[in-house]
Design brief:
Radius of gyration of chain B: 19 Å
Order of helices and strands of chain B: HHHHEEHHHHHHH
Radius of gyration of chain A: 18 Å
CATH architecture of the largest domain in chain A: 3-Layer(aba) Sandwich
Number of domains of chain A: 2
Structural class of chain A: alpha/beta
Number of strands of chain B: 2
Largest sheet of chain B: 2 strands, antiparallel
CATH superfamily of the largest domain in chain A: P-loop containing nucleotide triphosphate hydrolases
Order of helices and strands of chain A: EEEHEEHEHHHHEHEHEEHH
Distance between the termini of chain A: 38 Å
CATH class of the largest domain in chain A: Alpha Beta
Largest interface: A-B, 25 and 17 residues
Number of helices of chain B: 11
Number of helices of chain A: 10
Helix content of chain A: 25-40%
Structural class of chain B: mainly alpha
Largest sheet of chain A: 6 strands, mixed
Distance between the termini of chain B: 51 Å
Oligomer: heterodimer
Strand content of chain A: 25-35%
Number of strands of chain A: 10
Strand order of the largest sheet of chain A: 6-7-8-3-9-10
Helix content of chain B: over 70%
Shape of chain B: globular
Chain lengths: ~250, ~300
């Protein structure tokens, strides 16, 4: 569905992505793990078009994403849940969700109200808070709203940038359970995550990025069992729940 | 000063205050979507008045002249954005603010070539026999100004609160990047803001012309007072802009009334700038604004 080859991108003269090859198939979750500054977020921004200077090739279901504006990419069904949620803080929860369906306005298909009911079914807390200002929600609720807002656009590929950031482990697990359910219903995802363990537990495949390049690509199980990955990216949590890695 | 005199001053203050309010609202719309202070805002007010005058001279009834003036100046706002603002998108907000000053001079010059240097009149919307309320005689135009201003402010609020497009405009002013990720075209929102802003200020221009005439050079002072009203109410806050405009208009009128010497109306214009300075020193976030810290 998404096919990227030789993607280079950066800010001004600074090149962050130095030739990335990446594919996401239908119904697949691919995760990108790597240290801070490896270029993970830049990769998602390059796909959604919010980074200028892009070159290479990037195709999404027949659309040449390199030639499309940010708005057009979103309309084509590639929808980003940005780092740090980026909600419309002074607007209500409901308004945030309505704006999520902005690309669907005037189009055939299910009305936004029905879609909103689905989002409320996934995140019942949001329904309780629908009239509240988005900026007053807790961190977990904000992340749920950010995901819900993206779902309102009826994405075909969801780009998730650090959905676990700053959240309590319990809430992270709840959000990841919801993501799994969405994937089981057919939604493809590209997930960027600091928390490599939880990302790989959700994803089918994973890529390890180092300084703007893909160093390693494998199935999620493969990466979870890879001693090098464990040593570098699981940090002090190494060994927890994975046999044979104690003392690594 | 007697009570009916006081009411008289208040009513004339509300009239000019409404115009400052609409001008301030124009500033706010553009500022919220682009961070630009549009120093050509007053020219939209002036153009509104002069276009209505010409329409009326050509035989158009006043309501039609009003609507044509508002629509035409709205289009001028859109063209202004395309010609002057859009090309400087990458040059940054400061360059864009400076170009509005240049555009203001250009618009004024063109207006002078078309309409000349004279102050031109427009008849009041519904006659000029005063209505006596509580001993004060109030011109019907005052009620028109107040009523239409109210309609515009309420309509604008409904647009922002109830329509998806209005919500998209608010979303863009909060977080343009996130709005674009939702498929909202930021450049179209900016275009819409310029069009709406120009149209609203033009409406103010048409309404005030029967009271105080209009000339090619009248926009500069109205623009500066609208800006002072914005600062008074808190830059970026539409409610503050309207309140700031009304407060400024009333203070001006009362200055004329209370200063004991003749010719005190000459000091009227100073009030706006005195307020501007005091607010900037004492409460830069305005009466209704929240203190914000800009990260550099």
């Amino acid at each position: 569905m998404l096919a990227i080859s030789g993607l280079r991108a950066g800010y001004g003269r600074i090149e962050v992505l130095r030739g990335i090859d990446l594919a996401v198939a239908d119904r697949e979750i691919v995760t990108i793990i790597g240290a801070n500054g490896a270029g993970k977020s830049t990769l998602l921004r390059a796909i959604s078009g919010t980074v200028g200077n892009r070159s290479g090739a990037m195709d999404f279901a027949g659309n040449d994403l390199l030639r499309m504006s940010v708005e057009a990419i979103a309309s084509a069904g590639v929808v980003q849940v940005p780092e740090g949620r980026q909600l419309f803080g002074p607007l209500s929860v409901e308004e945030n969700l309505q704006l999520g369906s902005y690309t669907r306005r005037g189009r055939r298909g299910r009305p936004a109200g029905e879609k909103m009911k689905e989002v409320f079914a996934l995140f019942p807390l949001l329904e309780e808070r629908r009239a509240q200002q988005a900026g007053t929600l807790s961190g977990g609720e904000q992340q749920m709203l950010a995901i819900g807002r993206a779902l309102m656009a009826e994405p075909r590929l969801l780009l998730l940038d650090e959905p676990s950031m700053g959240l309590a482990p319990l809430i992270v697990r709840e959000i990841f359970r919801t993501l799994r359910r969405l994937n089981e219903a057919g939604l493809a995802m590209l997930l960027v995550e600091q928390d490599a363990r939880i990302a790989l537990s959700l994803a089918h495949r994973g890529l390890v990025m180092v300084r703007g390049q893909v160093m390693l690509e494998d199935s999620a199980e493969g990466l979870l069992g890879n001693p090098e990955v464990q040593a570098i990216y699981f940090g002090r949590h190494a060994g927890r729940g994975v046999s044979g890695t104690e003392g690594g | 000063m007697s009570f009916d005199q006081f009411l008289q001053y208040i009513s004339s203050g509300i009239t000019s205050g409404s115009i400052y309010a609409l001008t301030a609202l124009g500033f706010t719309l553009i500022y919220n979507s682009t961070d630009i202070i549009n120093f050509a805002q007053g020219e939209f007010v002036m153009l509104g008045g002069l276009v209505a005058i010409s329409m009326h001279e050509w035989g158009a009834p006043l309501p039609l002249a009003f609507l044509v003036a508002v629509a035409l100046v709205g289009i001028v706002g859109v063209i202004f954005e395309q010609l002057a603002i859009r090309p400087l998108l990458s040059a940054g907000v400061l360059a864009q603010i400076i170009v509005t000053i240049g555009a203001s001079l250009a618009i004024r010059t063109v207006a002078m070539l078309i309409w000349g240097r004279e102050s031109l009149p427009l008849p009041p919307f519904s006659g000029d026999s005063p209505i006596v309320i509580l001993g004060a005689s109030i011109l019907p135009q005052t009620l028109w100004v107040l009523g239409l201003t109210l309609v515009i402010v309420v309509a604008l609020q409904l647009f922002y609160r109830r329509t998806l497009t209005g919500k998209a405009v608010r979303a863009c002013s909060v977080n343009p990047t996130a709005a674009r990720l939702m498929g909202i075209s930021y450049s179209r929102v900016v275009l819409l803001s310029f069009g709406l802003s120009a149209a609203i200020s033009a409406a103010g221009g048409v309404m005030i012309t029967p009271v105080s005439f209009m000339s090619y050079s009248a926009g500069a002072l109205i623009g500066l007072k609208g800006f002072a009203a914005c600062i008074l109410g808190g830059l970026g806050n539409p409610v503050g802009a309207v309140a700031g405009g009304l407060i400024l208009g009333i203070l001006e009128a009362l200055t004329v009334g209370f200063l004991p010497f003749s010719g005190s109306s000459g000091y009227k214009d100073g009030v706006a700038f005195l307020i501007l300075l005091v607010i900037l020193f004492a409460r830069p976030q305005g009466l209704f604004g929240r203190r914000t810290v800009e990260k550099v």
